[in-house]
Amino acid sequence: MDAVIIAAGYGSRLAELSPSKPLTPVCGVPLIEIGIRQAAAAGVTRVVVVTGHRADDVEGFLAELAQRVDVVIEPVRVADWSKPNGYSVMAGAALCKNEYLLMMADHMFDSAILADLLAVGDESRDVTLAIDRHTDNPLVDPDDATWVKTDTSGFITAIGKTIPAWDAVDCGAFLATPRLAEAIGMAIAAGKSGSLSDGMQWLADRGRAAAHEIGGAWWMDVDDPRAHALAEDLAPRYLAAAFARA
Length: 246
What we know:
This protein has 8 helices and 13 strands. Helices cover about 35% and strands about 25% of the residues.
């Protein structure tokens, strides 16, 4: 099973702590390493990492990390990392023939979330997004979260940062098929900016984007100094195996 991890952006809100968001350490372990280790624990055997900002530094670290983890790591550079994140998804997906786990480099997940996602794909959907129904989760930044509205059958009807109504929050982990990258391309052709959410909405409008509830499993987005401080406190408790192997 492949995974694609998006690690191309600038990460301006973490810049005061680290010049590279994916290389920002949490308890001494870079975020990108935590993500790769959690993906491997869930059953992933190959990880495509999409690089952009400070790509030389990130790719240098990945080459070293590949000697320490039991997973193939393959970096690919996005042509223009200042563009919306859907362009990174398309760059990573181009190296995957079949379905793949899609993750964000600044998100941390209990590996159970990722393992469960790997088991839910079927012909009824082109993408499945991990969602948290606890929209008042204190670890979620409401000003930065991507919100999700679902129907009674568990399919997504709306997704975005500014949708008027929601019943869940996007956790930043997806089981994707090649149709997700195609959908982002279709959204761009229709005049959208090219964000991942644009592609997700394109599929949702066609009844092809499903949601998977994570229950009480732990996750968080490490996007600013406040979240980083929380991660320093909480991550070793919830992701002990990843830190033990680092």
